[in-house]
Amino acid sequence: MAEGENEVRWDGLCSRDSTTRETALETIRQIILRKTECLRSVKETTYRPSDELSNAVSLDELNKLLAHLLMLSKRCPFKDVREKSEFILKSVQELGIRIPRPLGHGPSRFIPEKEILQVGSEDTQMHALFADSFAALGRLDNITLVMVFHPQYLESFLKTQHYLLQMDGPLPLHHRHYIGIMAAARHQCSYLVNLHVNDFLHVGGDPKWLNGLENAPQKLQNLGELNKVLAHRPWLITKEHIERLLKAEEHSWSLAELVHAVVLLTHYHSLASFTFGCGISPEIHCDGGHTFRPPSVSNYCICDITNGNHNVDEMQVNSAGNISVSDSFFEVEALMEKMRQLQECRDEEEASQEEMASRFEMEKRESMFVFSSDDDEATPARDVSRHFEDTSYGYKDFSRHGMHVPTFRVQDYCWEDHGYSLVNRLYPDVGQLIDEKFHIAYNLTYNTMAMHKDVDTSMLRRAIWNYIHCMFGIRYDDYDYGEINQLLDRSFKVYIKTVVCTPEKVTKRMYDSFWRQFKHSEKVHVNLLLIEARMQAELLYALRAITRYMT
Amino acid sequence: MEKMSRVTTALGSSALTGRTMHCHLDAPANAISVCRDAAQVVVAGRSIFKIFAIEEEQFVEKLNLRVGRKPSLNLSCADVVWHQMDENLLATAATNGVVVTWNLGRPSRNKQDQLFTEHKRTVNKVCFHPTEAHVLLSGSQDGFMKCFDLRRKDSVSTFSGQSESVRDVQFSIRDYFTFASTFENGNVQLWDIRRPDRCERMFTAHNGPVFCCDWHPEDRGWLATGGRDKMVKVWDMTTHRAKEMHCVQTIASVARVKWRPECRHHLATCSMMVDHNIYVWDVRRPFVPAAMFEEHRDVTTGIAWRHPHDPSFLLSGSKDSTLCQHLFRDASQPVERANPEGLCYGLFGDLAFAAKESLVAAESGRKPYTGDRRHPIFFKRKLDPAEPFSGLASSALSVFEIEPGGGSMSWFVDTAERYALTGRPLAELCDHNAKVARELGRNQVAQTWTMLRIIYCSPGLVPSANLNHSVGKGSSCGLPLMNSFNLKDMASGLGSETRLDRSKGDTRSDTVLLDSSATLITNEDNEETEGSDVPTDYLLGDVEGEEDELYPLDPEHVHPEEPEYVLPQEAFPLRHEIVDTPSGPEHLQDKADSPHVSGSEADAASLAPVDSSFSLLSISHALYDSRLPPDFFSVLVCDMLHFYAEQGDVQMAVSVLIVLGERVRKDIDEQTQEHWYTSYIDLLQRFRLWNVSNQVVKLSTSQAVSCLNQASTTLHVNCSHCKRPMSSRGWVCDRCHRCASMCAVCHHVVKGLFVWCQGCSHGGHLQHIMKWLEGSSHCPAGCGHLCEYS
């Protein structure tokens, strides 16, 4: 009885109707105050040891609620909710209960909070986006707040994600979140894992599964292998992988389910790249996003908020990265000059065919050795690792041994002609959504570069896109890979390579040391290119294997 | 005009001959093109560029144009075209953006003529002007089209599509200056070659990329386009706005489209993914292809009609590295395989029936069933006299009205609802189903179930633990059929004495399910006594032989037995005794001649739990079964399933298939199973037995069937208070903030199955309510209502 009444329902807050929100908030307020009262009275009156445990439990519960309220007070797109939740928090504080405060520095650790759009100061278009996102998920996550630098893309991104997770599809809802967890865990991305653990439980997933992949149904366990290969060496996917999944007696996947799973896996692999690439902070209401300690000991334990990034070293001010400002100023100029040159001289010097082919091979080979210097072997310490097996399997060990990546020619199997048709056939409408997302990401431009306006950046964008595909062994016949070397300098390549292949190793120093004169929004733009190119590369390999299986 | 007549005469003098044939290439082909003389074909791909002579019996390689030591990307062809005026002239589009022309008249080994490197991206298509000797057009991924004059070193003019990549360019055959181009964003543009500044006309033809287009060879202004949206559209460009004349829906994205010569409405298509066949469509008949070529094992990448005035020879190249010549007369015609018969029930049992006219005519002439069948109340024949393929597939439609009340299918519904398909050991399932069938008066079916039980239930297959579980805690099995065991059923099923028994039985709890299992047991006992009277071989002999022989026996067997159902009261103690002995098969073997031999030790029995005794029943069957492996009968059982399916009782076939599972599945071919499943599911859905049909879908092992409930998996719920759809979550309403359904027992929100009493509208979790009702029949909400659940 009492339990049912005291259960807090956050759903009402997602409504677009302000009165609905108000009533919902009012009930929340009453519940919280009641709980607080009850806790206080217990504290004051008796100190029976038997109560201790239940007391701790209820305190824990209350703290969770307060953390959620804190999140709302900062991140809800609706002003009334923000104000009211803050008010509730205050009144709780007045009752002598410790209230949480946000930790960290805004949605991203790489980008100063003031650069990022504040909730509440968005324009109408963005507000609509926020409200949509909030209505669908009951929260406005940090990824959204960072991506809103590029609202056009964000819209398509949210639409796709919503469709993948919540709309019609062959997989049950909790499976979808679980696959998301599996994919994110491959890159030890505790941020995404935490988010989806909550969602997973919310849609009725079995908490036992969260103890590790071996507790999940056999069917999902079978997916582990594909997840592993897809995340680190997609070119090794063969039709045998597919066959093993589709023909496993009662644990077999149907083609439609498999395509859904593959899209989810690739989506979350690349989203993990984004999370690390932009240094997304933990959500306010999740572990590590808030603290109940008073601000005086603000610097306690950095590692708690690092989200798995090794950003301890970024605190030690980087001495090597201290290149003078004038130097970096010329960086942009030089880049633009190079682009101009390439544009002009393209027709004149015509590299021979062998030359072109060798340039691709060279770039591919070189991309394997482009790596950050700090090569410390970090085993995943967090509990995230239990969601996948074979932790040693990564991108790195093959690059060390200089394994050969076979060449995949886009002209023979490309997303527009082949991949799209296959996805849309087996998982209707999703092909269309992903196709749109790729297009927006690839064609997104504001014709600016740092402080310059009216610049045609298509060449630069294409170089980035093709460089990522090149790392995966995907070759465009009609591209001169020499351009990549001209346009992308080493520190940028290091960053790209790390974000795409081993995102968990990205540090703030890497983020800061490329394109120093560029705006943060442009760096986020780069990240969007990276994740979409990565997703497409993985999809191409997986879909090609499925096609081969089908023929 | 002039040119055409010339060609026709040329054809007249040497008519084409040949056969359906293919030859292996070394590498996948990307495109093919035919020489003007229809005797040579060029094949181009990433690593192949060859000319073949088409001879009577075979393809003969004539020339390899890929010369030079090192493979160059210039030779990696996305497209190839042979000039239709000059048989020495070819052009290729390379994946690296180069356009190359080739002159076969060159004396050296390398026939490469000119190289145009103006495009920045892959060139998707090249096209020669149909009448002009030196004009070449190219369309590229970079969004530009370029027109080259082969006498000059670079392009004459550049056309910018202002949008995305160009996928195809085609000169109009009739209008000297016009060409069409198709784009990745779904647009089609018409250009005048003299005006590179802007296009003459632009319209959106498809949703998604338009991969190909083709001008009609005769009808001025007809353009066919094919796109990723799986459509082929025919446009009339002569009018002010491009008008869509025809639309053909294919099953995969359309990679190429080519009008068939001399057949005004025919065109050939091939697809880019998944589907490997080449189809020839009559655009007026967009649902069934007129012809189909199925030779290729991988996607077809290039098609070309061999001669511009001969409709029967089609050449094709494919990713599977073969070059084929298809003869129209060898094509398979789906129309022939299509069923021109159709049958459909109306809402009130009316029957519409379409069949070949000839059949209908003959039938009505004979009128074999005129006795009880009505004449069609409505007869319709829609036939267009101009229709060219009336002979192939045309049908007449007749509609019959059915007398009300005739042909009741209530037995089907009853059976479907009451059959148990899973969740219990095989023996119980069989017995249960047999009982259901018997109660519905379907003795043959009942007998079949009983026999299946005898055949398949050897001790190994029915572990006793399993049995105990299901009998002891029957309610935990969560049977969908629980509700069918109400007391009334039982009463009618059993003699009055059985009821007496039940009241006497001290060890039995009062759950309904146990009662039913008690019946099952008496049933089994019955069999046994039967077995001991009749020589066992006799019984087996029947099973082996014609099943029909057994049926005549049925009535005699069943009826005298009826009272005996109650009889084996003493059989219980008998079984109990066996419990205590370690039940090895050898041990039982000793007693094989007399299963009742142990009757003397009856006293010990009463101590043994009732449950475990049941398992022994089936063990004793082993006495007969152990001689023959269950596999022995599988052929027979399959025959039996086919028999039922043929009879129209697909219900029986599917139920047995599910119940027996692995035991017979492998002996029946996948397709037949799938067919049975789909027809049964279809029937169930017609009778709105959604639960049963879903259960069947779930239990089916066929891929295609289990896919059925993976589509459209979202359930939309409306709030019971404000009647608005609940969008975010299924159990709480956004608007009125009430949980839609609370469980009256545990006071939690019900997120899954919700069951409620129709009298007081209180309810809750299915399990909770079931448990509650075991203890009390009052409403758990405390409203005082005596709840009734069906």
TrEMBL record, chain A:
InterPro entries in alphabetical order: AhpD-like (IPR029032), Sestrin (IPR006730)
Compartments it resides in: Cytoplasm
Pfam families hit by this protein: PA26 (PF04636)
Primary subcellular site in the record, as a coarse category: cytoplasm
Any single GO BP term: cellular response to L-leucine
Catalyses which reaction(s): a hydroperoxide + L-cysteinyl-[protein] = S-hydroxy-L-cysteinyl-[protein] + an alcohol
Annotated Gene Ontology cellular component terms: cytoplasm; nucleus
GO molecular function terms listed in the Swiss-Prot or TrEMBL record: L-leucine binding; oxidoreductase activity, acting on peroxide as acceptor
Keyword annotations of the record: Cytoplasm, Oxidoreductase
Domain of life where this protein originates: Eukaryota
PANTHER family tied to this protein: P53 REGULATED PA26 NUCLEAR PROTEIN SESTRIN, SESTRIN-1
Record family assignment: Belongs to the sestrin family.
Protein name: Sestrin-1 isoform 1
Organism: Heterocephalus glaber (Naked mole rat)
TrEMBL record, chain B:
Top EC group: transferase
PROSITE patterns the UniProt entry points to: WD_REPEATS_1 (PS00678), WD_REPEATS_2 (PS50082), WD_REPEATS_REGION (PS50294)
Localization in the cell: Lysosome membrane
UniProt entry keywords in alphabetical sequence: Autophagy, Lysosome, Membrane, Metal-binding, Repeat, Transferase, Ubl conjugation pathway, WD repeat, Zinc, Zinc-finger
Pathway assignment: Protein modification; protein ubiquitination
Catalytic activity from the UniProt record: S-ubiquitinyl-[E2 ubiquitin-conjugating enzyme]-L-cysteine + [acceptor protein]-L-lysine = [E2 ubiquitin-conjugating enzyme]-L-cysteine + N(6)-ubiquitinyl-[acceptor protein]-L-lysine
GO MF annotations, alphabetized: ubiquitin protein ligase activity; zinc ion binding
Coiled-coil annotated spans: none
Gene3D superfamilies: YVTN repeat-like/Quinoprotein amine dehydrogenase
Any matching Pfam family: WD40
EC number: 2.3.2.27
Cellular component terms per the entry's GO annotation: cytosol; GATOR2 complex; lysosomal membrane
Gene Ontology BP annotations: autophagy; cellular response to amino acid starvation; positive regulation of macroautophagy; positive regulation of TORC1 signaling
UniProt WD repeat ranges: 116-158, 203-245
Region (Disordered): 516-537, 581-603
Subunit details: Component of the GATOR2 subcomplex, composed of MIOS, SEC13, SEH1L, WDR24 and WDR59. The GATOR2 complex interacts with CASTOR1 and CASTOR2; the interaction is negatively regulated by arginine. The GATOR2 complex interacts with SESN1, SESN2 and SESN3; the interaction is negatively regulated by amino acids. SESN1, SESN2 and SESN3 convey leucine availability via direct interaction with SEH1L and WDR24.
Role noted for this protein: Catalytic component of the GATOR2 complex, a multiprotein complex that acts as an activator of the amino acid-sensing branch of the mTORC1 signaling pathway. The GATOR2 complex indirectly activates mTORC1 through the inhibition of the GATOR1 subcomplex. GATOR2 probably acts as an E3 ubiquitin-protein ligase toward GATOR1. In the presence of abundant amino acids, the GATOR2 complex mediates ubiquitination of the NPRL2 core component of the GATOR1 complex, leading to GATOR1 inactivation. In the absence of amino acids, GATOR2 is inhibited, activating the GATOR1 complex.
Protein family according to the UniProt entry: Belongs to the WD repeat WDR24 family.
Name of the protein described by the UniProt record: GATOR2 complex protein WDR24
Organism name: Heterocephalus glaber (Naked mole rat)
